[in-house]
Amino acid sequence: MATTNGKAILIGIQAFLCILEAYLISKISLIGKIGIAMFYKQYRFLRTGWKTFLLLFTIQLLLILLLHLAKKRLPARKANYTAAVFLILAIIGLWGTYYDFQYTFSHRLLKEKFHLGFYLFWLGWMGTCVYYLAIKPAKQESAVALAEAAEEQMPA
Q1: Can you tell me the distance from the alpha carbon of 138 to that of 8, in angstroms, rounded to the nearest whole number?
Q2: Is 109 helix (H, G, I), strand (E, B) or coil?
Q3: Residue 70: closest CA among 130, 132, 119
Q4: What are the protein's UniProt keywords (predicted)?
Q5: CB-based contacts of 144: which residues, under 8 Å, 6+ apart?
Q6: Is residue 145 part of a domain?
Q7: How many other C-beta atoms lie within 10 A of the C-beta of residue 18?
Q8: Could you tell me the residue range of the domain that residue 36 belongs to?
């Protein structure tokens, strides 16, 4: 299983990426700011960097928690399938985001920095999935091995 140090580094990297993502997303174009202010009020939080950071970082932490619990409680094969499914979802999300930003006129007006923030979000998601696919599960000792070790420890 991954060390606590490895998970702390993963969370630190995700925090840094989320700060960068939030900064880029908050640099929305003037037309985008006007559109959000007038028509798409539900996306108002995207104009504020710290609110965007909290949302993106919470999502990343939930992903890390889900994959950690899967790695800890499921057999290795199922835990890897879980991480692979989330990786596929991230690839689909990245493709969908790219497609939407390229072919929806109003989203093209939001400019490259805004787009890059969301691309980084999906790349960070993929990085978490790859991390959990790469780490080895904790070695579980069998009951027989534990019994043999206990017998060796007993005085004769």
Answers
A1: 18
A2: coil
A3: 132
A4: Membrane, Transmembrane, Transmembrane helix
A5: none
A6: no
A7: 24
A8: 4-136
Q: Work out how many domains the chain is built from and give that number.
A: 1
Give me 99's structure tokens.
């497609």
First to last CA, the chain: 36
Residue 117 lies in a domain: yes
Tell me the pLDDT of the chain (156 aa) as tens digits: 556 788 899 999 999 999 999 999 888 878 777 877 777 788 787 778 899 999 999 999 999 999 999 999 999 999 999 999 999 999 999 999 999 888 877 777 778 888 899 999 999 999 999 999 998 866 554 445 555 666 667 665
DSSP 18-75: HHHHHHHHHT--HHHHHHHHHT-GGGGGGGSHHHHHHHHHHHHHHHHHHHHHHHHHS-
Q: Give the Cα separation of 63 and 30 in Å (integer).
A: 33
* 8 Å CB contact between 17 and 120: yes
Quick check: is 141 in a domain? no
pTM for the predicted model, two decimal places: 0.80
Number of residues assigned to the chain: 156
Query: For 121, how many CA atoms within 13 A lie in the half-sphere containing its CB?
Result: 30
Structure tokens at 72: 């800890």
Tell the residue number behind the tokens 């390229």, with chain if given.
102
